[in-house]
Write a structure and sequence with these properties.
30 helices, seven-stranded antiparallel sheet, Jelly Rolls, five-stranded mixed sheet, 781 residues
């Protein structure tokens, strides 16, 4: 346990070997990357990328050459990886095992739940990235919007092309993963090989791209931590990245924030390598990584401050002395070279910029859109009293307060006295300090804006925790119980368990929950099983996609917020059911919500809906289930008046085929046709149906009705069936309303309730009117 000694004392510090000069690079490591196998792998990757560019530019699939290049890249890449592992095993076995273990763990957590709501409504901005990637894949590479950078657009399009290269494997994989996850009623891929399968396959390709970037980012994060404080700090930094619920959640979504974090991690790790050895190769690589970070998320370009910091570290103080004139001149040019490389890479991943630079910069949806929005915009729920407190709370949730507080104490201890580690830490701080200050100064907050700085924070948290751990181990050596190595190992394990218990438990819980159906997916299955045909559902944002509702015979409409519609419209009878999501309505009904103007009216509308309308069901998220609270409300008290005659009957009835609607009534022209009426009925009421029936009313064999309360929806085949009998005068049919069971806690026993009644009449029937006799009248007779 020699690593667990006070930093800067017994542990050998790399920078302490020559405080006045930079450590020269090792030729062996540089030569390893020039091995023919690695160069061939790079050539195969470049060939594949070139074929993709030709595919996009000419709108030509190039499937044959693309498959050959992809197969070559996979074979050569596998060989390169094995060679790197073998070389690492020979030189640094423990570090190689640690890196492999971190990567394996990261892949397990990031890929678990990658199919979360795969065929559901896009969440956050996933739909935007998928749309642009699909457009580029179709050859429309000019993108007019620069609200978001274009790196994920273009890399996503390449992922879609690669998905085409491995067809039909990609479609089979998407179908198998969705089939394994969803019940048949909520699975649009059960009998579909068209748009829904393509949607699932494309979305899976982009999800895998982001998840893999989020997983492989653990390597530069661990490398960064190792350069700040040694191998154990690197291991802790990797663990902090893997077991961050904030990182884990973002890596399961197709949004650019977490790819930007991956490239920011690479830029920071390369910057610290630059701190140790100032070469043009390292400077260029760091600049390229910074350009990719900005190409994924504009504010992530602030990571360039890390490059400026390490460049200054070679110009200021004792590190600037002892250099030859040539080395000094080369060092001076390192920063301009890094800057030029960064800008070139940023523009290369956004080729549309060259089509119209003025539009890209100055248009309303140009690169300055975010600056204007975050500089003076905002909306309800994203403008807290203090941005700093908000982001601190998010970091507490991400790392757990025990680890965060311990790390802060450790960093404070480290900064108390001058050591090479402290010096290296101070030169690493410009980017995280500047970026967090930028977040605090914005006019609104979004937690995923923390993404680019999370690699740096993981390394800092690991370093601070390591300092405290090292002090604790040093102090424990004075206690007889902990003088043996096994006892100290147990002590370290217990302390690490206490520090990481919260983020580990939350991340594992989150991953397991993401692997299970969400509340939205369960709601889709429940609605498919319960809603009868002909009803009209109005749903708001953050509710299920329900694009298959038409195949159920259900009409589904959308509203950004239910309460944006006038209350009179919601209750007028056009809608049978309302589907609300807590992700939408809570911003208006929270006790601490600060409402102004029309938001007050929207809050009142939501309150009335929740207070007055019967709640059919409510789905809540739980410890092992993700998603918002979903509430299905039945619109009671809006029914057709009786009697109904002619045109009025034709207007009020819901029909599976509009050709059934006539001026004088309803025509039943095919077997199995039905007519839905929404009526206010009580058990024992009688409906008299007037019209023309084949062979007369007395011979209307098979005529029947199915009924259910609107507040208790169920599938048509599960509704009670009541035969239609000939009336006493032989001129019509009658149906008596049966007892439909308990009406629910909000209903008055024996009172009338909104009822859905489906009338099935023989082929050739014409329904011209409906008369009503209440149970009270019948009892009096």
């Amino acid at each position: 346990m020699s690593d667990l000694t006070p930093l800067g004392a017994a542990r050998r510090d790399r920078a302490s070997t020559s405080p006045g000069t930079a450590t020269p690079p090792t030729s062996g490591g540089d030569a390893a990357w020039r091995h023919p196998l690695h160069l061939a792998t790079a050539g195969a990757a470049l060939t594949l990328a070139t074929l993709w560019v030709v595919h996009v530019a000419r709108a030509t699939p190039l499937l044959g050459p693309g498959r050959i290049a992809l197969a070559a890249l996979m074979a050569l890449g596998g060989g390169s990886l094995l060679r790197l592992l073998a070389a690492g095993w020979r030189r640094r076995r423990a570090r190689t095992l640690g890196a492999a273990g971190l990567l394996l763990l990261a892949l397990t957590l990031r890929l678990s739940g990658v199919t979360h709501e795969l065929v559901e409504q896009s969440y956050l901005d996933e739909g935007t990235y998928l749309h642009h990637a699909q457009q580029i894949d179709a050859g429309q590479w000019v993108r007019g919007s620069f609200v978001y950078p274009h790196l994920l657009y273009n890399s996503g399009a390449m992922a879609l092309w690669i998905s085409d290269l491995v067809e039909p494997l990609s479609s089979r994989l998407a179908r198998a993963l969705v089939d394994q996850r969803l019940p048949a009623a909520a699975n649009p891929l059960v009998a579909d090989a068209g748009p829904d399968l393509r949607f699932a396959r494309d979305r899976l390709a982009l999800r895998l791209l982001v998840a893999l970037l989020g997983a492989f980012a653990v390597l530069p994060v661990a490398w960064l931590g190792g350069q700040l404080g040694g191998p154990l700090v690197g291991l802790l930094a990797g663990a902090a990245w893997i077991f961050s619920p904030l990182v884990n959640e973002g890596a399961h979504l197709v949004i650019s924030d977490w790819p930007s974090a991956c490239f920011a991690a690479c830029a920071l790790a390369l910057a610290m390598r630059w701190y140790e050895c100032e070469t043009w190769a390292v400077a260029s690589a760091a600049g390229a990584a910074a350009g990719l970070a900005a190409g994924a998320k504009y504010p992530a370009g602030v990571v360039a401050l890390a490059l400026i910091g390490v460049w200054l570290s070679h110009r200021i103080g004792p590190r600037s002395s002892g250099r030859s004139s040539l080395a000094g001149a080369r060092g001076l040019l390192a920063l301009p070279l890094a800057g030029a490389t960064s800008l070139a890479v940023f523009l290369a991943v956004s080729p549309t910029f060259f089509v119209d630079p003025a539009h890209a910069l100055l248009s309303p949806r140009g690169m300055l859109f975010g600056l204007r929005q975050y500089g003076g915009g905002g909306w309800l729920g994203v403008q807290p009293d203090s941005n700093a407190v908000y982001y601190l709370e998010r970091l507490g949730e991400s790392f757990g307060w025990p680890l965060l507080v311990t790390a802060a104490c450790g960093l404070a201890l480290l900064l108390r006295r001058p050591t090479p580690t402290r010096t290296r830490l101070l030169w690493a701080l410009p980017f995280p300090v500047a970026y967090l200050a930028l977040l605090a100064a914005m006019s609104m907050v979004v937690k995923r804006n923390l993404a680019p700085v999370m690699p740096a924070l993981c390394a800092l948290v690991a370093l601070g925790a390591f300092v405290v751990l090292a002090r604790l181990v040093a102090a424990s050596q004075r206690v007889a119980l902990f003088r043996g190595t096994p006892a100290r190992v147990v002590l370290v394990a217990l302390v690490l368990l206490a520090l990481f218990a919260v983020p580990v438990a939350e991340t594992v819980r989150q991953s397991l929950a993401l692997a299970r159906p969400s509340t939205r997916e369960l709601a889709t299955a429940r609605l498919a099983a319960q809603l009868p045909p002909g009803v009209h559902l109005l749903k708001e944002s953050y509710t299920p996609r329900l694009h298959l509702a038409e195949s159920w015979g259900v009409r589904s409409s959308n509203s950004r917020f239910l309460a944006r519609r006038p209350l009179e419209e919601l209750l007028a009878g056009e809608y049978d059911y309302l589907l609300a999501s807590s992700s939408a309505y809570t911003r208006f009904v929270r006790e601490d919500a600060e409402l102004e103007g029309h938001h007050v009216e929207m809050s009142a509308t939501y309150q009335r809906l929740f207070d007055e309308l019967p709640e059919v069901w409510r789905l809540r998220p739980g410890r092992w289930r993700e998603g918002p609270v979903l509430r299905l409300l039945a619109v009671e008290g809006t029914t057709a008046g009786l009697p109904l005659d002619g045109a009025e009957l034709a207007r009020e009835a819901v029909l599976p085929d509009d050709s059934m609607r006539g001026a004088a009534g309803l025509r039943f022209t095919l077997p199995g046709q039905w007519a839905l009426l929404r009526l206010s009925l009580r058990p024992g009421d009688e409906l008299a149906l007037e019209g023309h029936f084949p062979g007369g009313a007395q011979s209307a064999d098979g005529a029947h009705a199915r009924l259910t309360r609107r507040a208790q929806p169920q599938a048509l085949e599960r509704m009670p069936s009541v035969s239609l009998l000939g009336s006493d005068d032989g001129q019509g049919l009658t149906v008596r309303v049966p007892d439909l069971g308990e009406a629910g806690p909000q209903a008055t026993p024996g009172a009338s309730s909104a009822t859905l009644i489906y009338l099935f009449l023989p082929e050739g029937s014409v329904l011209e009117g409906v008369r009503h006799r209440s149970a009270l009248e019948l009892n009096e007779d």
